[in-house]
């Protein structure tokens, strides 16, 4: 369903009324398209504190020359070690933040917290509150994120994503990038070329958008969905030049059947399949609870364990699971759904280091907020409007926003991003 309020606020009467009444004023977002694959303008590099990062090695086109309306600003604050140097964050950004272009990006670079230096830890943790606060006030479709890193080369894919239109609905996030050595793809335009990606629940909605985006990036996509959606899954697969797999992901042997269907192995596994059976706990029968936990969490655990045990995920593989802000912040009437999606976050954080050490596979999650789908279009009007407006961008996201974030985590050069739960919610006012 179209966001008519967003369209109205782009008109002269809409601008007048929203200004006079103090109503949210969402700005149209610059999302990736073949016609406009990059932000329009220069990428300005600023520094706070003494930094040892070699950002020139990232080939991101950063400049220290003054820019009138930069499309992006990168603030290297890895050298901030105390309250005194923290003041340099204000000194660097205060003069330029107003001039950042509409749908522009601000990315703050921070260092891991040093447990042996509580002054450094305090100053670096302060960057988190600063970033999230700036994201809530900056407006005009602009986003603000924090990346903790020690090696700029390992963060090149992450910075490339956050400084591009592909991250239009990702704001207020803190991403940690390890020091793991990564290898860039041979073809940056098709980074997943030669790789096989399986997406569950991919016959429609967000799953279909994920499959489309991974195929755009060169992957051979396997579209998995329940037998009842076999025709839709086949149509999606045919359109993308992939294959379909009709399978109930909750079947006890689902993992073994996936491995058998892909004897040459798998590079990207996207756990997208999910259901809702909303009702307040006092009115929720056991079958509603069990159905949601089985599809959204138990099946993810079972199939992941089976595929790792079978060696079906090749070295350098990626597992991306779908969490939700309902699992991070809670939501009335969704105790079952919230529990299942919080469980995904726990799975990711616990499995990620072991999967990387033992199998060479990273494990991350995306946590969507209000995304414009057929499911949210059926939500009652006032609840739907609240969901759309209660974020820093004052609008709902699109399935493509979740898909682009998934593609970043699936990128061959994202091997240093592991154990992360990244919200795709326009910086929802709910949750951390």
TrEMBL record:
PROSITE patterns in UniProt: ADH_SHORT (PS00061)
InterPro entries hit by this protein: KR_dom, NAD(P)-bd_dom_sf, Sc_DH/Rdtase_CS, SDR_fam
Top-level taxon in the UniProt lineage: Bacteria
UniProt xrefs under SMART domains: PKS_KR (SM00822)
Swiss-Prot/TrEMBL keywords: Oxidoreductase
Top EC class of this enzyme: oxidoreductase
Entry's EC annotation: 1.1.1.100
Regions that span the bilayer: none
Any Pfam family matching the protein: adh_short_C2
GO MF terms, alphabetically ordered: 3-oxoacyl-[acyl-carrier-protein] reductase (NADPH) activity
Location of the Ketoreductase domain: 195-374
Family: Belongs to the short-chain dehydrogenases/reductases (SDR) family.
Full protein name: 3-oxoacyl-ACP reductase
Organism: Streptomyces nigra
